[in-house]
Amino acid sequence: MTPGRPAVARFAVVGNPDNRRVALFADGVRAAGLPGPRLVPWADVLRDGGADFAPDEIVRLDSPGEDAHVDRVLRGADDPTRVEGSARWYTAFTSAVRGLRGGLRLDDPDDLAVLFDKRRCHAVLAAAGVPAPASPTSGSGAPPVCGWDDVRALMREHRMARLFVKLAHGSSASGVLAVESAGGGRIPATTSVELAPDGRLFNSLRIRRYTDERQVAAVVDALAPGGLHLERWLPKASQRGRAADLRVVVVDGRATHAVVRTSASPLTNLHLGGRRGDPHAAPPPLAPARAPGARLLPPSVAPGRRGGGRGVSGRGAAGRSPAGEVLPPCAGDGAAGLGAALRGAGLADLPLPPACKASVSLRTTGASMVEDAERTNSPSSWSLAMTTLLSTPNSLASS
Description:
Layout: E1 10-15, H1 20-31, E2 38-41, H2 42-48, E3 51-61, H3 68-75, H4 86-98, E4 100-105, H5 109-115, H6 118-127, H7 148-157, E5 162-167, E6 177-180, E7 189-195, E8 201-210, H8 213-223, E9 228-232, E10 237-239, E11 242-251, E12 254-263, E13 275-276, E14 295-296, E15 326-327, H9 334-344, H10 384-388
Parallel strand pairs: 1-2, 1-3, 3-4
Antiparallel strand pairs: 5-6, 5-9, 6-7, 7-8, 10-11, 11-12, 12-13, 14-15
Helix pairs in contact: 3-4
């Protein structure tokens, strides 16, 4: 045992008390035979400017999303369906994370600051040789995009006839526009952003197509103060006539979950009408690799519902497995999942109970749950698996 390490894993969770992910993680910890984690509410962290942890506490950060009060403090917006406020959210969140003191951390504040900034994240991926769509806004040294005029200029300079305009600190397609040059000099945009008559922006569950460039300009100009990231729009693969993409979660260097998403629009997000695709019918570039002993679940296992997130990525009472997930036996369940988390934090030598058969997953998707309504809350959720178990920043910041 390394000096200074706890004799038995003891967790503390920074999260929202009523959040389902917090409850699931606590259930998983207890199912693994460990003491229940101490909960430190995000509201207290934001109020006090941080929090203190015992030297032997393993600190796990959960999403600050899905709590109206915490969202108001972070974004400064009274209406949770508003798009604006992501830059303030980013500043407040990263400041709060840096105010956490002590404990054995599963995260790194500097990594989180990269993960939640698409521009910086894109630059890290490019520097590591990971293929990514070309972007004129990649990296901290790129010129800022102050509005629609700048977008038009970059489209011309980089010959980008089709591109995605994204909030630098957004997620779940909030503030994303798929922009394309059309005949006659027209530049329409497809987006979930609702432009109100008074100029305010709202997250909508209905995909819109703006064909008047003045409306596109109004949306982009309103988004620009929050920071914008531009990426070349690459053609997606298709499945049964619908655009398709593949989302993969990597835990401790191994791809453990994969889901094919399809859509009739450029945005494949499930809460915007996207559907889970059939992983067995995916073309070679999208077909998820079959890990030894893994189970690849068909779409019928967990049909999506309009307006609902993917729920919890687990096999317990809290939810069904998302369609197309690659689920290695007990990966993320009980002691096995704790072991992956501890290895990711360099704490693999901590003694754990024997591998259990508990069916509660310690990894959750972090997807926002939304009600059946025209508008939806500004999504600020993020995945534990991506933020605490990956050593290399990925496209978590992408939508």
